[in-house]
Specification:
The structure holds two protein chains of two kinds.
Chain A lengths: L8 E4 L2 E4 L11 E4 L2 H7 L4 H8 L9 E11 L1 E10 L4 E2 L11 E10 H4 L3 H11 L14 H10 L1 H6 L27 H7 L12 E10 L2 H7 L5 E8 L2 H18 L15 E2 L3 H36 L7 E7 L1 E10 L2 E10 L2 E2 L18 E4 L7 E6 L1 H6 L3 E2 L9 H7 L2 H10 L3 E4 L2 H6 L8 H11 L2 E14 L1
Parallel strand pairs in A: 3-4, 18-19
Antiparallel strand pairs in A: 1-2, 2-3, 4-5, 5-13, 6-10, 7-9, 7-11, 8-9, 8-19, 12-13, 14-17, 15-16, 16-19
Helix pairs in contact in A: 4-10, 5-10, 7-9, 9-10
Chain B lengths: L1 E6 L4 E7 L2 H16 L12 E8 L3 H18 L2 E11 L3 E10 L9 E3 L6 E2 L5 E8 L1
The chains are: A alpha+beta, B alpha+beta.
Chain lengths: 482, 137
Protein backbone atom coordinates (compact mmCIF):
# COMPACT_ATOMS: atom_id res chain seq x y z
CA UNK A 1 0.00 0.00 0.00
CA UNK A 2 1.36 3.38 -0.99
CA UNK A 3 -0.13 6.67 0.16
CA UNK A 4 0.07 9.49 -2.36
CA UNK A 5 -0.50 13.19 -1.85
CA UNK A 6 -3.87 13.05 -3.64
CA UNK A 7 -5.08 10.55 -0.99
CA UNK A 8 -4.69 13.28 1.64
CA UNK A 9 -7.24 16.04 2.21
CA UNK A 10 -6.34 19.37 3.77
CA UNK A 11 -8.83 19.75 6.66
CA UNK A 12 -7.46 23.09 7.76
CA UNK A 13 -4.07 24.78 7.97
CA UNK A 14 -1.63 22.29 9.59
CA UNK A 15 -4.22 19.49 9.76
CA UNK A 16 -4.42 16.81 7.04
CA UNK A 17 -6.68 13.78 6.73
CA UNK A 18 -6.62 10.40 5.03
CA UNK A 19 -10.37 9.66 4.95
CA UNK A 20 -11.86 6.51 6.43
CA UNK A 21 -12.88 5.50 2.91
CA UNK A 22 -9.21 5.11 1.91
CA UNK A 23 -9.23 1.49 3.07
CA UNK A 24 -12.20 -0.67 4.09
CA UNK A 25 -10.59 -1.81 7.37
CA UNK A 26 -10.28 1.78 8.67
CA UNK A 27 -12.71 2.51 11.52
CA UNK A 28 -11.81 6.21 11.75
CA UNK A 29 -9.94 8.70 9.55
CA UNK A 30 -6.17 9.11 9.92
CA UNK A 31 -4.96 12.64 10.63
CA UNK A 32 -1.60 14.36 10.39
CA UNK A 33 -0.65 17.58 12.18
CA UNK A 34 2.05 19.12 9.98
CA UNK A 35 3.05 21.97 7.73
CA UNK A 36 2.99 21.06 4.03
CA UNK A 37 6.82 20.92 4.00
CA UNK A 38 6.86 18.50 6.92
CA UNK A 39 4.02 16.46 5.40
CA UNK A 40 6.10 16.00 2.24
CA UNK A 41 9.03 14.82 4.38
CA UNK A 42 6.77 12.49 6.39
CA UNK A 43 5.60 10.86 3.14
CA UNK A 44 9.15 9.70 2.42
CA UNK A 45 9.01 6.82 4.92
CA UNK A 46 6.18 4.46 5.90
CA UNK A 47 4.78 6.52 8.80
CA UNK A 48 1.46 7.16 7.03
CA UNK A 49 0.95 3.51 6.09
CA UNK A 50 1.45 2.69 9.77
CA UNK A 51 -0.97 5.50 10.74
CA UNK A 52 -3.62 4.01 8.44
CA UNK A 53 -3.07 0.59 10.05
CA UNK A 54 -3.64 2.12 13.50
CA UNK A 55 -7.00 3.49 12.25
CA UNK A 56 -8.22 -0.13 12.16
CA UNK A 57 -7.62 -0.86 15.88
CA UNK A 58 -10.78 -2.29 17.51
CA UNK A 59 -12.62 0.40 19.46
CA UNK A 60 -10.58 3.33 18.10
CA UNK A 61 -12.52 6.58 18.13
CA UNK A 62 -12.15 10.06 16.64
CA UNK A 63 -9.09 9.55 14.46
CA UNK A 64 -5.64 8.00 14.52
CA UNK A 65 -3.20 10.88 14.71
CA UNK A 66 0.43 11.72 14.11
CA UNK A 67 2.41 14.75 15.16
CA UNK A 68 4.87 16.74 12.98
CA UNK A 69 7.87 14.88 14.50
CA UNK A 70 6.53 11.49 13.36
CA UNK A 71 8.77 8.87 11.82
CA UNK A 72 8.39 5.24 10.83
CA UNK A 73 8.34 2.80 13.73
CA UNK A 74 7.37 -0.86 13.89
CA UNK A 75 3.60 -1.36 13.92
CA UNK A 76 2.68 2.05 15.29
CA UNK A 77 4.51 5.11 13.97
CA UNK A 78 6.68 7.02 16.48
CA UNK A 79 4.88 10.29 17.19
CA UNK A 80 1.37 8.88 17.21
CA UNK A 81 -1.81 9.04 19.27
CA UNK A 82 -4.69 6.55 19.31
CA UNK A 83 -7.67 6.69 21.67
CA UNK A 84 -9.89 3.64 22.17
CA UNK A 85 -13.22 3.50 23.92
CA UNK A 86 -12.91 2.48 27.58
CA UNK A 87 -13.32 -0.28 28.71
CA UNK A 88 -14.23 -2.40 25.66
CA UNK A 89 -11.79 -0.88 23.13
CA UNK A 90 -8.33 -2.24 22.46
CA UNK A 91 -5.19 -1.87 24.50
CA UNK A 92 -2.06 -2.43 22.44
CA UNK A 93 1.45 -2.63 23.98
CA UNK A 94 2.85 -1.58 20.59
CA UNK A 95 0.93 1.70 20.91
CA UNK A 96 3.00 2.52 23.99
CA UNK A 97 6.33 1.15 22.83
CA UNK A 98 9.09 -0.94 24.37
CA UNK A 99 10.46 1.92 26.47
CA UNK A 100 7.39 2.34 28.67
CA UNK A 101 7.16 5.87 30.11
CA UNK A 102 10.16 7.14 28.28
CA UNK A 103 9.86 10.81 29.16
CA UNK A 104 11.50 14.10 29.98
CA UNK A 105 11.80 16.38 32.97
CA UNK A 106 13.21 19.84 33.48
CA UNK A 107 15.04 21.04 36.59
CA UNK A 108 15.47 24.78 37.07
CA UNK A 109 18.34 26.54 38.82
CA UNK A 110 18.65 30.05 40.16
CA UNK A 111 21.91 30.58 38.28
CA UNK A 112 22.47 32.33 34.97
CA UNK A 113 24.52 31.07 32.03
CA UNK A 114 27.24 33.63 32.78
CA UNK A 115 27.44 32.44 36.42
CA UNK A 116 28.39 28.89 35.47
CA UNK A 117 30.42 29.41 32.27
CA UNK A 118 33.81 29.10 33.96
CA UNK A 119 32.83 25.84 35.65
CA UNK A 120 30.96 24.27 32.72
CA UNK A 121 33.65 21.77 31.75
CA UNK A 122 34.05 20.68 35.39
CA UNK A 123 30.25 20.39 35.71
CA UNK A 124 29.91 18.23 32.58
CA UNK A 125 32.67 15.88 33.83
CA UNK A 126 31.14 15.70 37.31
CA UNK A 127 27.71 14.90 35.85
CA UNK A 128 29.23 12.19 33.66
CA UNK A 129 30.89 10.75 36.78
CA UNK A 130 27.71 10.90 38.88
CA UNK A 131 25.21 9.59 36.30
CA UNK A 132 25.78 6.04 35.07
CA UNK A 133 25.26 5.92 31.32
CA UNK A 134 25.93 3.60 28.41
CA UNK A 135 24.79 0.37 26.87
CA UNK A 136 23.56 -2.19 29.34
CA UNK A 137 25.13 -0.30 32.26
CA UNK A 138 23.55 -0.42 35.70
CA UNK A 139 23.25 2.27 38.35
CA UNK A 140 24.53 2.79 41.89
CA UNK A 141 21.49 1.23 43.57
CA UNK A 142 20.95 -2.53 43.68
CA UNK A 143 17.33 -3.31 44.56
CA UNK A 144 16.27 -6.41 46.50
CA UNK A 145 13.16 -8.24 45.19
CA UNK A 146 11.08 -6.55 47.93
CA UNK A 147 12.46 -3.12 47.04
CA UNK A 148 11.82 -3.51 43.33
CA UNK A 149 8.18 -4.36 44.07
CA UNK A 150 7.98 -1.19 46.17
CA UNK A 151 9.43 0.89 43.31
CA UNK A 152 6.94 -0.63 40.84
CA UNK A 153 4.07 0.19 43.22
CA UNK A 154 5.11 3.62 44.45
CA UNK A 155 7.01 5.17 41.53
CA UNK A 156 8.80 8.41 42.34
CA UNK A 157 7.43 8.28 45.89
CA UNK A 158 9.91 5.46 46.59
CA UNK A 159 12.77 7.88 45.93
CA UNK A 160 11.22 10.39 48.34
CA UNK A 161 10.70 7.71 51.04
CA UNK A 162 14.36 6.69 50.75
CA UNK A 163 15.80 10.20 50.98
CA UNK A 164 16.71 10.71 47.31
CA UNK A 165 14.23 13.54 46.77
CA UNK A 166 12.08 16.07 48.50
CA UNK A 167 8.35 15.42 48.76
CA UNK A 168 7.54 18.58 46.78
CA UNK A 169 8.94 17.07 43.55
CA UNK A 170 5.90 14.76 43.36
CA UNK A 171 3.47 17.60 42.72
CA UNK A 172 5.42 18.57 39.58
CA UNK A 173 5.11 15.26 37.77
CA UNK A 174 2.45 13.89 35.43
CA UNK A 175 0.20 11.70 37.63
CA UNK A 176 2.43 12.71 40.58
CA UNK A 177 4.93 10.11 39.37
CA UNK A 178 2.73 7.16 40.30
CA UNK A 179 0.01 5.23 38.48
CA UNK A 180 -2.38 3.66 40.98
CA UNK A 181 -3.21 0.61 38.83
CA UNK A 182 0.33 -0.76 39.09
CA UNK A 183 0.65 -4.31 40.37
CA UNK A 184 4.14 -5.89 40.49
CA UNK A 185 2.58 -9.38 40.53
CA UNK A 186 2.02 -8.93 36.79
CA UNK A 187 5.66 -8.07 36.04
CA UNK A 188 7.85 -11.09 35.17
CA UNK A 189 10.84 -12.14 37.25
CA UNK A 190 13.05 -11.57 34.19
CA UNK A 191 11.83 -7.95 33.94
CA UNK A 192 12.48 -7.39 37.65
CA UNK A 193 15.93 -8.97 37.35
CA UNK A 194 16.78 -6.67 34.43
CA UNK A 195 15.58 -3.62 36.37
CA UNK A 196 17.22 -4.49 39.69
CA UNK A 197 20.45 -2.53 39.00
CA UNK A 198 19.17 0.07 36.54
CA UNK A 199 17.64 2.79 38.72
CA UNK A 200 19.52 6.03 38.22
CA UNK A 201 21.11 5.04 34.89
CA UNK A 202 20.19 6.85 31.65
CA UNK A 203 21.09 4.04 29.22
CA UNK A 204 22.02 4.85 25.64
CA UNK A 205 20.44 5.69 22.27
CA UNK A 206 18.79 9.11 22.32
CA UNK A 207 18.74 9.33 26.12
CA UNK A 208 20.69 12.15 27.74
CA UNK A 209 21.09 14.66 30.53
CA UNK A 210 21.68 18.19 29.25
CA UNK A 211 22.50 21.55 30.83
CA UNK A 212 20.76 24.37 28.93
CA UNK A 213 20.06 28.05 29.40
CA UNK A 214 16.85 29.88 28.56
CA UNK A 215 17.67 31.75 25.36
CA UNK A 216 14.27 33.27 24.66
CA UNK A 217 10.93 33.77 26.39
CA UNK A 218 7.85 33.82 24.15
CA UNK A 219 5.11 33.85 26.76
CA UNK A 220 6.14 35.87 29.83
CA UNK A 221 3.03 34.94 31.86
CA UNK A 222 3.43 31.17 31.38
CA UNK A 223 7.20 31.45 31.82
CA UNK A 224 6.72 33.21 35.14
CA UNK A 225 4.26 30.55 36.26
CA UNK A 226 6.78 27.83 35.34
CA UNK A 227 9.61 29.71 37.09
CA UNK A 228 11.56 30.38 33.88
CA UNK A 229 13.51 33.54 33.06
CA UNK A 230 15.87 34.62 30.27
CA UNK A 231 19.47 33.48 30.79
CA UNK A 232 18.52 30.98 33.51
CA UNK A 233 20.34 27.64 33.65
CA UNK A 234 18.15 24.53 33.53
CA UNK A 235 18.71 20.75 33.25
CA UNK A 236 16.84 18.41 30.87
CA UNK A 237 16.68 14.68 31.63
CA UNK A 238 15.48 12.20 28.98
CA UNK A 239 15.19 8.49 29.79
CA UNK A 240 12.62 5.78 30.56
CA UNK A 241 12.05 2.42 32.23
CA UNK A 242 15.21 0.77 30.85
CA UNK A 243 15.42 -3.03 30.54
CA UNK A 244 12.52 -3.54 32.93
CA UNK A 245 10.10 -1.73 30.63
CA UNK A 246 11.55 -3.38 27.51
CA UNK A 247 10.97 -6.80 29.06
CA UNK A 248 7.39 -5.97 30.15
CA UNK A 249 6.55 -4.94 26.57
CA UNK A 250 8.25 -8.02 25.08
CA UNK A 251 6.45 -10.36 27.52
CA UNK A 252 3.00 -8.90 26.89
CA UNK A 253 3.21 -8.44 23.11
CA UNK A 254 3.86 -12.19 22.98
CA UNK A 255 0.96 -12.98 25.37
CA UNK A 256 -1.45 -10.62 23.66
CA UNK A 257 -0.59 -11.89 20.18
CA UNK A 258 -1.39 -15.42 21.33
CA UNK A 259 -4.69 -14.24 22.88
CA UNK A 260 -5.99 -12.26 19.87
CA UNK A 261 -7.77 -15.19 18.18
CA UNK A 262 -9.89 -15.64 21.34
CA UNK A 263 -11.38 -12.21 20.67
CA UNK A 264 -11.58 -12.58 16.87
CA UNK A 265 -9.00 -9.82 16.37
CA UNK A 266 -6.79 -9.70 13.28
CA UNK A 267 -4.24 -6.93 12.73
CA UNK A 268 -2.22 -5.99 9.62
CA UNK A 269 1.07 -5.99 11.56
CA UNK A 270 1.96 -8.25 14.49
CA UNK A 271 3.33 -5.25 16.42
CA UNK A 272 -0.25 -3.88 16.51
CA UNK A 273 -1.24 -6.89 18.65
CA UNK A 274 -4.12 -5.89 20.93
CA UNK A 275 -6.95 -7.23 23.09
CA UNK A 276 -9.98 -5.54 24.66
CA UNK A 277 -8.88 -3.46 27.64
CA UNK A 278 -11.37 -5.25 29.88
CA UNK A 279 -10.13 -8.73 28.93
CA UNK A 280 -7.96 -10.64 31.40
CA UNK A 281 -4.89 -10.16 29.17
CA UNK A 282 -5.66 -6.46 28.68
CA UNK A 283 -6.06 -5.77 32.39
CA UNK A 284 -2.91 -7.75 33.24
CA UNK A 285 -0.87 -5.78 30.70
CA UNK A 286 -2.23 -2.47 31.99
CA UNK A 287 -1.16 -3.35 35.55
CA UNK A 288 2.30 -4.32 34.29
CA UNK A 289 2.54 -1.18 32.12
CA UNK A 290 1.61 1.03 35.09
CA UNK A 291 4.32 -0.73 37.14
CA UNK A 292 6.95 -0.08 34.47
CA UNK A 293 5.78 3.54 34.18
CA UNK A 294 6.30 3.91 37.94
CA UNK A 295 9.82 2.46 37.58
CA UNK A 296 10.58 5.12 34.94
CA UNK A 297 9.37 7.97 37.15
CA UNK A 298 11.49 6.67 40.01
CA UNK A 299 14.43 6.35 37.60
CA UNK A 300 14.18 10.01 36.52
CA UNK A 301 13.87 11.00 40.18
CA UNK A 302 17.07 9.12 41.13
CA UNK A 303 18.87 10.69 38.13
CA UNK A 304 17.71 14.09 39.42
CA UNK A 305 19.35 13.20 42.76
CA UNK A 306 22.59 12.43 40.90
CA UNK A 307 22.38 15.73 38.99
CA UNK A 308 21.73 17.61 42.25
CA UNK A 309 24.79 15.90 43.81
CA UNK A 310 26.94 16.91 40.83
CA UNK A 311 25.63 20.48 41.19
CA UNK A 312 26.55 20.58 44.89
CA UNK A 313 30.00 19.10 44.24
CA UNK A 314 30.77 21.80 41.67
CA UNK A 315 28.98 24.88 43.05
CA UNK A 316 28.90 24.13 46.78
CA UNK A 317 25.98 23.85 49.14
CA UNK A 318 25.22 27.58 49.44
CA UNK A 319 23.44 27.82 46.09
CA UNK A 320 19.68 27.22 45.85
CA UNK A 321 18.80 23.58 45.05
CA UNK A 322 17.59 22.60 41.56
CA UNK A 323 13.79 22.65 41.44
CA UNK A 324 11.68 20.26 39.37
CA UNK A 325 9.59 22.28 36.87
CA UNK A 326 7.73 19.28 35.39
CA UNK A 327 8.08 15.66 34.29
CA UNK A 328 6.11 14.29 31.34
CA UNK A 329 5.79 10.83 29.79
CA UNK A 330 5.83 10.36 26.02
CA UNK A 331 5.37 6.55 25.75
CA UNK A 332 2.31 5.61 27.79
CA UNK A 333 -1.41 4.79 27.81
CA UNK A 334 -3.73 6.72 30.14
CA UNK A 335 -7.42 6.48 30.96
CA UNK A 336 -8.78 9.99 30.37
CA UNK A 337 -12.06 11.74 29.59
CA UNK A 338 -12.32 13.57 26.26
CA UNK A 339 -15.00 15.23 24.19
CA UNK A 340 -15.60 13.17 21.02
CA UNK A 341 -18.21 14.37 18.49
CA UNK A 342 -19.87 16.46 21.19
CA UNK A 343 -19.98 13.63 23.73
CA UNK A 344 -17.82 13.28 26.86
CA UNK A 345 -16.27 9.82 26.77
CA UNK A 346 -13.86 7.83 28.90
CA UNK A 347 -11.06 6.64 26.62
CA UNK A 348 -7.70 4.93 26.75
CA UNK A 349 -5.23 7.29 25.08
CA UNK A 350 -2.13 5.55 23.65
CA UNK A 351 0.72 8.02 23.24
CA UNK A 352 3.77 6.60 21.50
CA UNK A 353 6.28 9.38 21.03
CA UNK A 354 3.64 11.96 21.96
CA UNK A 355 3.27 14.16 25.03
CA UNK A 356 0.16 14.97 27.04
CA UNK A 357 -0.57 18.68 26.54
CA UNK A 358 -3.60 19.62 28.65
CA UNK A 359 -4.73 23.22 28.52
CA UNK A 360 -5.58 25.78 31.21
CA UNK A 361 -8.09 24.68 33.82
CA UNK A 362 -6.84 21.11 34.26
CA UNK A 363 -7.05 20.67 38.01
CA UNK A 364 -4.44 17.95 38.47
CA UNK A 365 -1.69 20.44 37.62
CA UNK A 366 0.33 22.27 40.28
CA UNK A 367 -1.85 25.24 41.30
CA UNK A 368 0.51 27.87 39.79
CA UNK A 369 0.23 26.13 36.37
CA UNK A 370 -3.58 25.75 36.22
CA UNK A 371 -4.22 29.13 34.61
CA UNK A 372 -1.56 28.71 31.88
CA UNK A 373 -1.82 25.01 31.04
CA UNK A 374 0.42 21.98 31.43
CA UNK A 375 4.13 22.36 30.67
CA UNK A 376 5.20 20.35 27.61
CA UNK A 377 8.92 19.66 27.24
CA UNK A 378 10.26 19.20 23.69
CA UNK A 379 13.91 18.17 23.55
CA UNK A 380 15.74 18.96 20.32
CA UNK A 381 18.72 17.00 19.08
CA UNK A 382 22.21 17.23 20.58
CA UNK A 383 23.51 20.72 19.83
CA UNK A 384 20.20 22.25 18.78
CA UNK A 385 17.54 24.06 20.80
CA UNK A 386 14.85 22.52 22.98
CA UNK A 387 11.50 24.11 23.81
CA UNK A 388 9.11 24.51 26.69
CA UNK A 389 5.51 24.75 25.51
CA UNK A 390 2.19 25.10 27.31
CA UNK A 391 -0.75 22.81 26.55
CA UNK A 392 -3.93 24.38 25.16
CA UNK A 393 -7.61 23.50 25.12
CA UNK A 394 -7.32 23.20 21.32
CA UNK A 395 -5.24 20.03 21.84
CA UNK A 396 -8.25 18.48 23.56
CA UNK A 397 -10.40 19.32 20.53
CA UNK A 398 -8.17 17.77 17.87
CA UNK A 399 -5.48 15.51 19.40
CA UNK A 400 -6.87 13.99 22.62
CA UNK A 401 -4.86 16.53 24.62
CA UNK A 402 -1.58 15.53 22.97
CA UNK A 403 1.35 17.17 21.24
CA UNK A 404 4.73 16.20 19.73
CA UNK A 405 7.66 14.80 21.77
CA UNK A 406 10.83 15.98 20.06
CA UNK A 407 12.42 16.84 16.74
CA UNK A 408 11.84 13.39 15.21
CA UNK A 409 14.48 11.31 13.48
CA UNK A 410 14.98 11.63 9.73
CA UNK A 411 18.24 9.70 9.10
CA UNK A 412 18.94 6.08 9.98
CA UNK A 413 21.74 5.43 12.46
CA UNK A 414 23.78 3.88 9.65
CA UNK A 415 23.32 6.96 7.43
CA UNK A 416 24.18 9.28 10.35
CA UNK A 417 27.39 7.35 11.06
CA UNK A 418 28.34 7.58 7.36
CA UNK A 419 27.74 11.35 7.22
CA UNK A 420 29.13 12.43 10.58
CA UNK A 421 32.72 12.57 11.75
CA UNK A 422 32.07 12.33 15.50
CA UNK A 423 35.43 13.72 16.79
CA UNK A 424 35.03 16.71 14.43
CA UNK A 425 31.39 17.20 15.52
CA UNK A 426 32.42 17.09 19.19
CA UNK A 427 35.02 19.79 18.50
CA UNK A 428 32.52 21.90 16.53
CA UNK A 429 30.04 21.68 19.38
CA UNK A 430 32.82 22.64 21.79
CA UNK A 431 33.52 25.74 19.67
CA UNK A 432 29.80 26.57 19.90
CA UNK A 433 30.20 26.43 23.72
CA UNK A 434 28.70 22.96 24.18
CA UNK A 435 30.62 20.34 26.19
CA UNK A 436 29.73 16.75 25.21
CA UNK A 437 30.54 13.82 27.51
CA UNK A 438 29.68 10.54 25.81
CA UNK A 439 30.51 6.88 26.17
CA UNK A 440 31.48 6.53 22.50
CA UNK A 441 32.01 8.51 19.29
CA UNK A 442 29.52 6.12 17.67
CA UNK A 443 26.80 7.40 20.03
CA UNK A 444 27.66 11.02 19.14
CA UNK A 445 27.48 10.30 15.39
CA UNK A 446 24.14 8.47 15.67
CA UNK A 447 22.58 11.35 17.59
CA UNK A 448 24.10 14.19 15.54
CA UNK A 449 21.77 17.12 14.72
CA UNK A 450 21.81 16.14 11.02
CA UNK A 451 20.02 12.88 11.92
CA UNK A 452 16.96 14.84 13.14
CA UNK A 453 14.29 17.06 11.66
CA UNK A 454 14.50 20.80 12.28
CA UNK A 455 13.05 21.16 15.80
CA UNK A 456 12.29 24.86 15.17
CA UNK A 457 10.02 23.89 12.25
CA UNK A 458 8.34 21.12 14.25
CA UNK A 459 7.60 23.47 17.16
CA UNK A 460 6.47 26.28 14.83
CA UNK A 461 3.98 23.80 13.30
CA UNK A 462 2.71 22.85 16.76
CA UNK A 463 2.27 26.53 17.63
CA UNK A 464 0.46 27.25 14.34
CA UNK A 465 -1.82 24.23 14.72
CA UNK A 466 -2.81 25.58 18.13
CA UNK A 467 -2.30 22.33 20.12
CA UNK A 468 0.39 23.95 22.30
CA UNK A 469 2.03 27.35 22.48
CA UNK A 470 5.65 28.36 22.78
CA UNK A 471 6.79 29.49 26.22
CA UNK A 472 10.59 29.37 26.09
CA UNK A 473 13.52 28.24 23.97
CA UNK A 474 16.50 26.49 25.55
CA UNK A 475 20.08 26.46 24.20
CA UNK A 476 22.42 23.59 25.21
CA UNK A 477 25.65 24.15 27.16
CA UNK A 478 26.65 20.60 28.20
CA UNK A 479 25.41 17.15 27.19
CA UNK A 480 25.92 13.80 28.94
CA UNK A 481 25.13 10.78 26.75
CA UNK A 482 25.46 7.04 26.99
CA UNK B 1 24.17 -18.98 6.99
CA UNK B 2 24.52 -15.19 6.95
CA UNK B 3 23.24 -11.89 8.27
CA UNK B 4 23.21 -8.44 6.68
CA UNK B 5 22.18 -5.03 8.04
CA UNK B 6 19.98 -2.50 6.21
CA UNK B 7 19.05 1.10 7.15
CA UNK B 8 15.87 1.91 9.11
CA UNK B 9 14.86 5.43 10.24
CA UNK B 10 15.42 4.84 13.94
CA UNK B 11 16.25 1.19 14.36
CA UNK B 12 18.25 -1.66 12.77
CA UNK B 13 16.87 -3.82 9.96
CA UNK B 14 18.67 -7.16 9.59
CA UNK B 15 18.21 -9.86 6.95
CA UNK B 16 19.09 -13.39 8.04
CA UNK B 17 19.48 -16.45 5.84
CA UNK B 18 20.11 -20.06 6.70
CA UNK B 19 20.90 -23.02 4.52
CA UNK B 20 18.41 -24.93 6.71
CA UNK B 21 15.82 -23.95 9.34
CA UNK B 22 18.31 -24.53 12.17
CA UNK B 23 20.93 -22.30 10.53
CA UNK B 24 18.40 -19.44 10.32
CA UNK B 25 18.26 -19.40 14.12
CA UNK B 26 22.06 -19.52 14.38
CA UNK B 27 22.32 -16.59 11.92
CA UNK B 28 19.83 -14.63 14.03
CA UNK B 29 21.84 -15.21 17.21
CA UNK B 30 25.14 -14.25 15.56
CA UNK B 31 23.67 -11.19 13.82
CA UNK B 32 22.19 -9.96 17.11
CA UNK B 33 25.43 -10.64 19.02
CA UNK B 34 27.32 -8.62 16.40
CA UNK B 35 25.03 -5.61 17.03
CA UNK B 36 25.51 -5.89 20.80
CA UNK B 37 29.31 -6.10 20.42
CA UNK B 38 31.01 -6.21 17.06
CA UNK B 39 32.99 -9.38 16.30
CA UNK B 40 32.54 -10.77 19.83
CA UNK B 41 31.67 -14.21 18.45
CA UNK B 42 35.02 -14.62 16.72
CA UNK B 43 36.75 -16.82 17.69
CA UNK B 44 33.89 -18.87 19.08
CA UNK B 45 35.96 -21.48 20.87
CA UNK B 46 35.75 -20.21 24.45
CA UNK B 47 32.55 -19.55 26.35
CA UNK B 48 32.03 -18.82 30.02
CA UNK B 49 28.26 -19.01 30.39
CA UNK B 50 25.55 -21.48 29.40
CA UNK B 51 21.77 -21.00 29.56
CA UNK B 52 18.79 -23.04 28.50
CA UNK B 53 15.81 -21.83 26.47
CA UNK B 54 12.54 -23.63 25.86
CA UNK B 55 9.78 -21.92 23.84
CA UNK B 56 6.55 -22.80 22.11
CA UNK B 57 5.04 -20.42 19.55
CA UNK B 58 2.11 -20.28 17.18
CA UNK B 59 4.23 -20.34 13.98
CA UNK B 60 7.82 -20.39 12.78
CA UNK B 61 8.11 -16.60 12.55
CA UNK B 62 6.99 -16.11 16.15
CA UNK B 63 9.27 -18.96 17.19
CA UNK B 64 12.35 -17.21 15.77
CA UNK B 65 11.45 -13.78 17.18
CA UNK B 66 10.51 -15.19 20.60
CA UNK B 67 13.72 -17.22 20.67
CA UNK B 68 15.88 -14.17 19.88
CA UNK B 69 13.94 -12.10 22.47
CA UNK B 70 14.73 -14.75 25.05
CA UNK B 71 18.42 -14.80 24.10
CA UNK B 72 18.44 -10.98 24.39
CA UNK B 73 16.84 -11.12 27.85
CA UNK B 74 19.53 -13.58 28.97
CA UNK B 75 22.20 -11.26 27.55
CA UNK B 76 21.04 -8.39 29.75
CA UNK B 77 20.19 -10.35 32.87
CA UNK B 78 23.45 -12.32 32.74
CA UNK B 79 25.63 -9.49 31.31
CA UNK B 80 26.72 -11.82 28.51
CA UNK B 81 26.59 -12.13 24.75
CA UNK B 82 25.54 -15.49 23.33
CA UNK B 83 27.22 -16.92 20.23
CA UNK B 84 26.56 -20.65 20.10
CA UNK B 85 23.36 -22.70 20.02
CA UNK B 86 23.04 -26.42 20.63
CA UNK B 87 19.55 -27.50 19.55
CA UNK B 88 17.93 -30.17 21.72
CA UNK B 89 14.62 -29.89 19.84
CA UNK B 90 13.49 -27.76 16.88
CA UNK B 91 10.16 -27.91 15.05
CA UNK B 92 8.11 -25.16 13.37
CA UNK B 93 6.55 -24.25 16.73
CA UNK B 94 8.88 -25.64 19.43
CA UNK B 95 12.46 -25.02 20.39
CA UNK B 96 14.60 -26.35 23.20
CA UNK B 97 18.23 -25.26 23.10
CA UNK B 98 21.35 -24.60 25.13
CA UNK B 99 23.00 -21.26 24.39
CA UNK B 100 26.65 -20.45 25.12
CA UNK B 101 28.06 -16.99 25.60
CA UNK B 102 30.80 -14.70 26.84
CA UNK B 103 30.46 -12.35 29.79
CA UNK B 104 30.94 -8.69 28.92
CA UNK B 105 31.19 -5.27 30.51
CA UNK B 106 28.79 -3.08 28.54
CA UNK B 107 27.62 -3.35 24.95
CA UNK B 108 28.34 -1.41 21.73
CA UNK B 109 24.60 -0.95 21.14
CA UNK B 110 21.58 -1.36 23.40
CA UNK B 111 18.80 -3.33 21.72
CA UNK B 112 15.46 -2.59 23.39
CA UNK B 113 13.63 -5.42 21.66
CA UNK B 114 13.47 -7.87 18.79
CA UNK B 115 10.25 -6.88 17.01
CA UNK B 116 7.80 -8.91 14.90
CA UNK B 117 7.49 -6.00 12.44
CA UNK B 118 8.39 -7.13 8.88
CA UNK B 119 9.40 -10.58 10.15
CA UNK B 120 8.17 -13.43 7.95
CA UNK B 121 10.16 -16.64 7.98
CA UNK B 122 9.95 -18.11 4.48
CA UNK B 123 11.53 -20.94 2.58
CA UNK B 124 13.17 -19.13 -0.31
CA UNK B 125 13.92 -22.22 -2.37
CA UNK B 126 15.62 -25.53 -1.74
CA UNK B 127 16.31 -25.74 1.95
CA UNK B 128 17.11 -22.02 2.32
CA UNK B 129 15.19 -19.99 4.91
CA UNK B 130 15.18 -16.22 5.34
CA UNK B 131 13.50 -13.26 7.04
CA UNK B 132 13.97 -9.61 7.90
CA UNK B 133 14.13 -8.66 11.58
CA UNK B 134 13.75 -5.12 12.97
CA UNK B 135 15.53 -4.43 16.26
CA UNK B 136 14.19 -1.55 18.37
CA UNK B 137 17.22 0.52 19.35
Amino acid sequence: MKIKKHDIIKKEDFLWEIPQTFRPQMLVPARVIASETLLDAIMEDRSLVQLVNVASLPGIIGASLVMPDVHEGYGFPIGGVAATLYPHGAISPGGIGYDINCGVRLLTSQQNAEDIKSKLEELSKEMYAQIPSGMGKGGQIILTPKEIDEVLTKGAEWAVDHGYADNQDLAYMESNGRLENADPAFVSEMAKKRGSDQLGAIGSGNHFVEVDYVEEIYDPIAAEAYGLSKGQVVVLIHTGSRGLGHQVATDYIRKIMAAMPNYGIKVPDRELACVPFNSQEGENYYKAMCSAANFAWCNREIISWEVRNAWKNVFGTDIAPLKLMYDVAHNIAKIETHQVDGEKLKVLVHRKGATRAFGPGFEDLPKEYISVGQPVIIPGSMGTCSYILAGTNRSEEISFGSCCHGAGRKLSRTAAKKQVNAPVLKEELREMGIYVQAGSFKGIAEEAPVAYKDVDEVVETIQNSGIAKKVAKLRPMAVVKG
Amino acid sequence: MKFQYFPHTADIRMKVEGCCFKELFVAGVLGMANILKEDICEPEDSFDIKSNIEIQATDQTCLLIDFLSEVLSHSYSEKSIFCKVIFLKLTATDIKADIYGKTTIGFDEEIKAVTYHEAEVVNSGGNTWETFIIFDI
